[in-house]
Specification:
Blueprint: E1 6-11, E2 21-23, E3 37-44, E4 50-57, E5 68-72, H1 81-88, E6 91-93, E7 105-107, E8 117-121, E9 131-132, E10 139-140, H2 141-148, E11 153-159, H3 165-168, H4 172-178, H5 184-194, H6 206-219, H7 248-257, H8 260-266, E12 285-286, H9 293-301, E13 305-311, H10 319-327, E14 333-342, E15 345-353, E16 357-362, H11 373-384
Parallel strand pairs: 5-8, 10-12, 11-13, 13-16
Antiparallel strand pairs: 1-5, 1-11, 2-3, 3-4, 4-8, 4-9, 6-7, 14-15, 15-16
Helix pairs in contact: 5-6
Length: about 400
């Protein structure tokens, strides 16, 4: 299973990039762009052999005064173009059947650039349009953290984050039970025979293994990104995905990003990238940070603000697991569990802890912000302004 993390860092300043180019028109979008877009490469290392591709969009409000944010999509290996065009950018892919011509883009009303400058970064090397001038070696969690540390952080937002996989994945079964995907009897038997450990089951515990198998029979055909949507995408070949499927968008973005006119407009260096993929799962990568919970504790105890949010219909990284690791920090509750609303309608639930940490759910949301972009936009707008959700 691919681990997916959405990470947002509020920056004091950005790394200097010599190769930035202003983009005034994008193929597929009618007329000049109604926002300021710059694309380019950020060289990493003494020889700058590692070239991270970025999209920088200025705030539509007050670029000089508004915060500067770095957006990283997870995977690892997913391009942040996905965040720009699906989740919180000022333009989005228009949903229409692809006829072989150029995919269309449309303006969105929920862009986070209405109140912040954003750098969408293709990271690690191999993701999106990022590339290496020398043969690409194996990277890791710690190595990527060192590279990203070239941006100073002041606060951060995590969306449906993978934090401690071995711990969090055990919450898929309680989540499935709460969502009526498995029976009371199966849930009780799992709890008794597996004792809360459903991933790394002792092979001698045949009863638990059999029950876990029963669990998978009930859930393997569920869309893990959003349990209410059909499991209809062709992960091996997006081209085979039906236009009726929500994930047809993933095929459209691939068509758009691989169009030569688009690459020229974005100032992608010729010959540095073959076929663009939304997520590149072939990057040699070592998950050498077993749990990032101690890092979150260290950062929050240092006085940095944080917002951790979860779409409540994501089974990949269920909100129960996220709540559990936050509770493990033993922070005092400042503002207890309550609904947060948009126009008197409940949009989710939230709780605020000491050390400036806020947790929130997005009602009806999935694994990424794209499922509920308007609600996520309003949540972020309130948090970045220092207002309660």
């Amino acid at each position: 299973m691919a681990l997916k993390v959405l990470l947002l860092l509020i920056l004091v300043f950005s790394h200097h990039a010599d190769s930035g180019s202003i983009v005034k028109f994008l193929p597929g979008f009618e007329g000049p762009l109604p926002f300021e877009l710059e694309t380019g490469y950020i060289g990493i290392g003494e020889e700058e052999n590692l070239q991270l591709f970025y999209y920088f969009i200025k705030s539509e409000k007050n670029p000089k005064e508004d915060p500067l944010l770095l957006w990283l999509n997870g995977g690892p290996g997913c391009s942040s173009l996905e965040g720009l065009l699906f989740e919180n950018g000022p333009v989005a892919v228009k949903v229409e059947v692809y006829n072989g011509s150029l995919v269309s883009l449309v303006s969105t009303p929920y862009s986070w650039t209405q109140m912040a400058n954003i750098i969408y970064l293709d990271q690690p090397i191999g993701a999106g349009f990022s590339y290496s001038r020398t043969p690409l070696g194996k990277t890791s969690d710690t190595n990527e953290a060192k590279m990203i540390h070239e941006f100073l952080q002041k606060g951060y937002v995590l969306g449906n984050p993978v934090t401690y996989p071995e711990f969090e994945e055990n919450y898929r079964i309680p989540f499935s039970h709460g969502m009526s995907l498995i029976s009371d009897e199966l849930h009780e038997s799992l709890k008794i025979n597996c004792k809360g450990n459903y991933g790394n089951v002792d092979p001698r515990n045949t009863k638990c293994l059999k029950l876990v198998d029963e669990y998978h029979k009930c859930t393997d055909k569920i869309n893990t990104q959003h349990i209410l949507l059909p499991d209809c995408d062709d992960k091996r070949n997006p081209k085979n995905t039906s236009p009726d499927c929500y994930y047809y968008l993933y095929y459209l973005i691939e068509c758009w990003a691989n169009n030569e006119r688009v690459r020229e407009a974005l100032h992608v260096k010729k010959g540095t990238k073959g076929h663009w993929q939304r997520c590149n799962w072939t990057i040699p990568y070592d998950h050498d940070i077993i749990s990032s919970v101690p890092y979150h504790m260290n950062i929050s105890l240092s006085g940095y603000r944080s917002l951790v949010y979860s779409g409540d219909h994501d089974i990949t990284m269920p909100f129960l697991g996220t709540q559990a690791w936050i509770k493990s920090l033993n922070y005092s509750i400042i503002d207890d569990w309550r609904p947060w609303k948009i126009k008197d309608q409940i949009a989710g639930y939230t709780r605020t802890y000491s050390n400036k940490m806020t947790f929130a759910t997005i009602k009806g949301g999935g694994h990424t912000a794209e499922y509920k972009p308007n609600e996520t936009f309003i949540m972020f707008q309130r948090w970045i302004s220092g207002h309660p959700l």
